[in-house]
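User: My instructor asked us to take a sequence, write out its structure as tokens, and then describe one feature of it. I'm not sure where to start. Here is the sequence I was given:
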Amino acid sequence: MFSEEEIKEEREKDWRKELREKIKSSDRAKKERISMPEEDATSRSRNSVEVNKGLSVEQALSESERCLDCANPTCISGCPVGINIPKFIKKIESKDFAGAAIILKETNTLPAVCGRVCPQEIQCEARCFYTLKLGKDAVGIGNLERFAADYERNSGKISIPEVSKNNGIMIAVAGSGPAGLTAACDLSRLGYQVTVFEALHEIGGVLKYGIPGFRLPNEIINLEIDNLRKMGIHFETNYIVGKTESFHELKKQGYQAFFIGSGAGLPNFMNIPGENLVGIFSSNEYLTRVNLMGASKPEYDTPVLSGKKVAVIGGGNTAMDSVRTALRLGAEKAMIIYRRTMDEMPARKEEMKHALEEGVEIITLQNPVAYIGNDKSRVRQIRLQKMTLGEPDASGRRRPVPVENSEYLMDVDTVIVSVGVSPSPIIPLALPEIEMTRWGTIKVNPDNMQSSVPWIFAGGDIVRGGATVILAMGDGRKAAIGIHEFIQNKIK
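Assistant: Let's start with the prediction itself. The structure tokens for your sequence are:
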């Protein structure tokens, strides 16, 4: 006798075999990748409309037909949350779009989010057979993921992941960013009673305060969070674990384990003269004021300086988000200043492309050494020094080396510093017994994300010091399994 699962597996093999036979692999390989439709660069640079418009049904079907359904799908190994990529793509090819969304949600808590902001080009798509063996453009995995999630949302028939019967065991999650939301989702599936504590007034963490609406609209995040509420997850806002109440106080209330996903929201600065002048922001402060506190809307009284000559220091995705936001707030000249070349920039190629299309000027091999203010202490100039590239450093990128006697002044009225972030010191102050690294991140066992305090697990930027949404989600998944094993071992 076959089990129900075995029968289901055989049926799946049958319909996937039919799809493979319908179009030969050689014909699939001849198809060109479908480009994501985009809003016009000139108009979008002055509004908050989402830049990428999403694939149509016809485009998604055509792109799905490129998938070869490899016997050894290396793309899955490139996904930090382990999505069964060929399976969900084949569901799209068979026009079972709802089924594709269900498969995504088996391992991905936030498919509509990941389809928009995950760097697939260096993860799953980098492991695609087309990339590895054929030297061609990978299957548009991220674009298809977004299509399936958006199609489900627009259909009004949203599937909610199944959860096990509530076992009455309380777990606390500190932070509602991608790591925290993923850990909460997976723990809820396992039957735990999960409460997510968020320090800010809205749920979403960096998804809400750090990523602009033209890349990730708020309504997309809100819908994903509503799905988690429907799973039974409870959310508390305006609550700082470690300050509002301590970890030990919450433990006395019955929480048997904690996941810390509080991110890394403490901005780094360069410690150069003039950094305290008016008009100089960290990227975190700037984006939070605009994205979460409505500074771009006339009906809100959140202050933010809308400069006409805006310089953003840094070359990562947050720098790109900041400079493109400045354009949308009315900047006449918006510049990225980066100390290496564009080849070394850590920002996604797509984000650089969009920024350049919108009129952003990227100035490379330059580094600020001082800021100069006017008689009202408002920044008016940057003193820049030219750089050249030397030998590779620990990151593998060539080290920027100052060029002697190359300093010059550039006029600006707003500067946004985007040179990295560090974790808040709240955690070590609240938990002096927890082991930290010299960078202020929590030290964990990478296999299960358990800290030196056995009942505390952690993941995301509080462990990594700054990473992608999908890597944080991978940490959340791993930690959920670790917490489950920890609890079960206690019960035995």
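For the description part of your assignment, you could build on this observation: The domain at 13-155 is CATH 1.10.1060.10 (Fumarate Reductase Iron-sulfur Protein; Chain B, domain 2). Try explaining in your own words what that tells you about the chain.
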